[in-house]
Amino acid sequence: MATFHFHNTLLVFLGLALFGFNIDTVSSEFPIREATVRDIQIAFHQNKLTSKKLVQFYIREIERLNPVLRAVIEVNPDAVKLARKADLEREANATVSRSLLHGIPILVKDNIATKDKMNTTAGSYALLGSVVPRDAGVVVRLRKAGAIILGKASLSEWAHGRSPKAPSGWCARTGQAVNPYVESQDPCGSSTGSAISVAANLAAISLGTETDGSILCPSSFNSVVGIKPTVGLTSRGGVIPLTPRQDTVGPICRTVSDAAYVLDVIVGYDRHDAVATREASKYIPNGGYVQFLKPDGLRGKRLGISNYLYFGFPKNSGISQLFKQPLQTLRQGGAILVDHIKIPNYETIKDSMFIGEQIAMTAELKLSLNAYLKGLITSPVRSLADIIAFNNKFSDLEKIGEYGQDDFLESEKTNGIGELEKKALLNLTRASKYGFERLMRKYKLDALVTPFAQGSPVLAIGGYPGIIVPAGYDEGGTPYGICFGGLRGSEPKLIEIAYGFEQASKVRKPPSFKP
């Protein structure tokens, strides 16, 4: 038995080495805080850590910090039991234990369904007690890989689809989520809890969702890495929708490598999101995404830099000064910065994009949300009209009455996809084709570089991918990220660029937040 165990341990170590893991990096006093997936897996196989201890550590951190951060809505009551199961599988060298995510705790945004003892509510009391028919497609893949669903991360209620008056990070079930770096700073987007949690070490990794900016923006403001995948690359089956045309699920982690490990697990076909996942599956590279974690990933990459307001680095602006060093890092890493790119008919494209997106989404929200609600096994609400009625009846819950539900009310007035919506959708298609796609091909770009998450509308309307990486901190200590966006299916290039930048800059630091 001892010999058998030795040979299997050796095989595990060789497998880790194939991924470039340094098996001597973990000390005997293993520091869980800031540990990467790589660090944790090595610690598991050196018997310096167990999944049970890891889960218990994160639960204690949630109990300690979450009363102020409000980043987690629920902790999975079975998390410790699942961790013990993972430990036994590892001891038995079960096939599943060879996955890089095996035994790793992950928080998922509360609009991603889990068929367990936890709720899936999008942060709203209206769905409390509802029963989902099955795990979301991405959760099925996580469980199959041996990941432990630690709990549900908070979010801007209904993924910020209810009212523009509600601040980012607010939902009825938890109240206002708090940026762990600067308490007064907007945590941004709707995947706020997912970003705050990994930044503040309440979990190893997390999942967020994006319709327009909801992975990229909270990642930027909370000094973490976020990948917004090509729409359809990851399944939206079992995810509370805003619009299937733009919704996507992606990882939020502390490092590009961790995000790539998660992406490898969650991509692929799902019959509950068949059309989109079948079409996007052609983009999944043989051998997965981990192979693109190249330290020299910047070398030779053509990166577009614009001076357009809202999408770039305007000359002589505070933004240009803030990103002077990150842009220099790109150059020093061997990237070719294509400056001063011109977008023909920019104003027309910009107007079509912003106005068209709002018109289309207003109608699509009602259609997609009604379909999701009707598919629940049990639910207090079965339609958008029911949600509006619930919010009116219980407007005293937290700040529901104060923030209103303007977007819901506008959506409820719509009646499917009419002539107005068809025109808006056509304008969005044209804006993508004659704006972003033409720009990328004209200048032969590998990626468009934007500050913060400013490029998110461009990526959102065309279903394009984006990766954001910590780039620095302003004078007040607020983090900011740099975003790389590309054409559909360009995740391999984007991972190379993001990893190359991350390894060259290494600016991320944990928050000094104290409760």
Question: How would you describe this structure to a colleague?
Answer:
Helices cover 41% and strands 12% of the residues. It has helices spanning 2-18, 37-45, 51-69, 79-91, 137-144, 157-160, 192-199, 216-221, 256-266, 274-280, 318-322, 324-332, 346-374, 384-393, 400-403, 406-412, 419-442, 456-462, 491-505; strands at residues 72-75, 105-109, 148-153, 170-171, 175-176, 205-210, 225-228, 248-253, 302-305, 336-338, 447-451, 466-473, 479-485. The termini are far apart. The protein contains 19 helices and 13 strands. It has a single domain, classed as Amidase signature (AS) enzymes, CATH 3.90.1300.10. The strands form 2 sheets. An 11-stranded mixed sheet has the order 1-3-2-6-8-7-12-13-11-9-10, sandwiched between helices. Strands 4-5 form a two-stranded antiparallel ribbon. With 515 residues, the protein is of the alpha/beta class.
